[in-house]
Amino acid sequence: MIKVRFIANGKRVEVETSPTRTLLDILREDLGLTGTKEGCAKGECGACTVVMDGKAVTSCLVLAAQIEGRKILTVEGLAEDRIGKALQDAFVEAGAVQCGYCIPGFLMSARALLAENPKPRPEEIKEGLSGNICRCTGYVKIFDAVALAAQRLAR
Ligand code: FES
Ligand code: FES
After folding, report:
1. 51 CB contacts (<8 Å, ≥6 apart)?
2. Of the residues 14, 51, 70, 126, which has the fewest C-beta atoms closer than 10 A?
3. C-alpha of residue 103 to centroid of ligand 2, in Å
């Protein structure tokens, strides 16, 4: 067992865990942050995406031993985050909140994208969200929502 200390949505946390447990499991099981979803558990679907030190990562592939001192933002922290809040509002207004299983991951990838590139071109939005899979209604409204949030944040 190891002790890891990190920041989750602005709060310091300390967790005692096996070093090979995933960040996804720690968030969901130890911290009760169940907004982050498990899809494939193999880094392929993007449902488990969180932002770690500003970058979108698939939390099913991040091990406990890699999170010491990191800053993690999950979907639960988005309402307190300027870009995150703009994205949440835009997703609702654009009708991009579809199944709720993949959407937290899409929001987190979009959060990382807009923090790095506040004025993404349509192809950059597509590319930024290319690690997230939606199996039902498609991506158009999601891309529109990200563009809308970017427009509003630029004002
Ligand atoms: S659950 Fe992590 S990428 Fe699918
Ligand atoms: S909206 Fe979630 S899988 Fe399509």
Report:
1. 57, 72, 73, 74, 108, 111, 112, 115
2. 14
3. 7
The single-letter code of the amino acid at 68 is E
Mutate to test the pocket of ligand 2, among 92, 102, 140 (most ligand atoms within 8 A of CB): 102
What is the model's pLDDT at position 78? 97
CA of 99 to the centre of ligand 2 (A): 5
Structure tokens, 26 = 């720690």
What is the pLDDT averaged over residues 72-80? 97
